[in-house]
Design the sequence.
C-alpha cells in the first residue's frame, strides 16, 4: 500500500485508511475521501495534489495527501 502522495497522475485508487488527526480526517470525510472511496489523481508533483472524487476536484496539501493510505484498483 502507499499514500495518495505516491500515486502517479491519471491513476485511480481506493482509499484504505486516513491517518490524519480528528479535524483533518473530518474534513477529508466531508470531501468524500474516506475508506472505500475511489479517488483519481489528476495532478501530482511539486505543489498540491489535485484529486477527483465523484464529480468534484479538490486540491490537497502534500502533508495531508501523505495521510491518505490507498491501494491500486484491481482490473
Sequence:
Amino acid at each position: 500500500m502507499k499514500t495518495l502522495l505516491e500515486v502517479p497522475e491519471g491513476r485511480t485508487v481506493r482509499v484504505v485508511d486516513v491517518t490524519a488527526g480528528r479535524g483533518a480526517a473530518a474534513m477529508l470525510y466531508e470531501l468524500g475521501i474516506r475508506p472505500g472511496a475511489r479517488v483519481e489523481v489528476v495532478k501530482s508533483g511539486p505543489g498540491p495534489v489535485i484529486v477527483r472524487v465523484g464529480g468534484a476536484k479538490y486540491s490537497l496539501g502534500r502533508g495531508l495527501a501523505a495521510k491518505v493510505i490507498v491501494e491500486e484498483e484491481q482490473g
User: Anything to note?
Assistant: The chain has a mean pLDDT of 95. The helical segments are 22-31, 62-65. DSSP finds two helices and six strands in the chain.
